[in-house]
Amino acid sequence: MRFFDVENSLDYYSFGMLMPERNGGANYRYGYQGSEKDNEVKGNGNSYTTYFRQLDPRLGRWLTIDPVTQPWQSPYTSMDNSPIRYNDPLGDKVKPMDKKSARRTKKILKQTFSGKEYRAARKLFKLNSDKSEFKPINEDKLFDVIDNMKSSEAKGLLYGYAQMINNDKNHFVIITKSNEKIFKNQEQINTIGGLFEGIIQFEDYYDKMLMNGQDIDNMAMGGITFNDERGNSLVIVNLNNTSKLTYIDQYQSINAEGKSVTKFTKVQKASSNGEIFAHELLGHALYSPNGQVIYSLMLSNMYLRHKGQTHKRVGFQHGVSKSGIGNNIKNGSADRIPTNLQP
């Protein structure tokens, strides 16, 4: 039989106020939802500080305006007035699920901007001291790098990834392999459930299919994104993707009259990690959480052009109707760079 000493015990009301006579132990630095206690301001447990603002748990209100405001509620509202369902420990950056995913995410980003001409871009992607999250990117440095880029696609991709890292939503990223479990334990699943609300079919997907990276390959062609009602997301990518997608390759041909005409042919290929990452993280998580798949196709094609590829995605195997695919081929709708990716 083993015995353990309890060094710290804290019970809270819903918004983080300490319950009288139900807490004690060591003077631990952190408290409610992992936020740092700010006891010298209003007394023990009456104020918490986070990356962006301070919380008064007695009022259940932030003391400064929330960076994410909604027209139907006060900008000082905390946890959407529902602290049992939501929490807000930080809310400011891309959050790999673990250190392994953090390393892999950084590697994909650096591969996206490979080559001497993108050395300055690669230097912008830095992990924090414990290698678990990305450091915010300084905007002055970001635009200095962008201004010296020649390619519109490279500019857009870099600007998009910087927005993901610096913005005020929670974007969890899991980079796995075919033989690896997606979640190590129930605690990681609970973490996702605690941070996100209304993730579409997340529990059903996990229970039925998402047990390892191969399931991502079989079901979602190497990557999948879950979005909640507030713009937060969970992105899962399989590094060993082998499922082949249908692309369109464009080429010039001479017809019977001796005129040059544009023709298209279908090509079957497995998507690269960099394309999947741009498609899911920028296309689905950042720009089309409401299901507008055209943005995810645009991001795939931006990446492919950035890497000098001639094939492109037009909507096959992505829920796009035949007429929609035809329009994408004829009008080049999926070839554009989204307006919000034109810095």
Write up what this structure looks like.
There is one protein chain. With 343 residues, the protein is α+β, with helices and mostly antiparallel strands. Among the domains are: 9-76, no CATH class; 244-341, no CATH class. 32% of the residues lie in helices and 19% in strands. It is built from eleven helices and 13 strands. It has helices spanning 39-42, 99-112, 119-122, 139-147, 152-166, 186-195, 202-208, 213-220, 273-286, 293-306, 322-331, and strands spanning 8-12, 18-25, 36-37, 48-49, 54-56, 61-62, 94-96, 171-176, 223-227, 233-238, 244-254, 260-270, 311-312. The strands form four sheets. A four-stranded antiparallel beta sheet has the order 3-4-5-6, with no helix packed on it. A hairpin with a 4-residue loop joins strand 4 and strand 5 (54-56). It is elongated and about 90 Å long. It starts with 7 loop residues before the first strand and ends in a 12-residue tail after the last helix. 36% of the residues are buried. The mean pLDDT is 79.
Secondary-structure blueprint:
Elements: E1 8-12, E2 18-25, E3 36-37, H1 39-42, E4 48-49, E5 54-56, E6 61-62, E7 94-96, H2 99-112, H3 119-122, H4 139-147, H5 152-166, E8 171-176, H6 186-195, H7 202-208, H8 213-220, E9 223-227, E10 233-238, E11 244-254, E12 260-270, H9 273-286, H10 293-306, E13 311-312, H11 322-331
Parallel strand pairs: 7-8, 8-10
Antiparallel strand pairs: 1-2, 3-4, 4-5, 5-6, 9-10, 11-12, 11-13
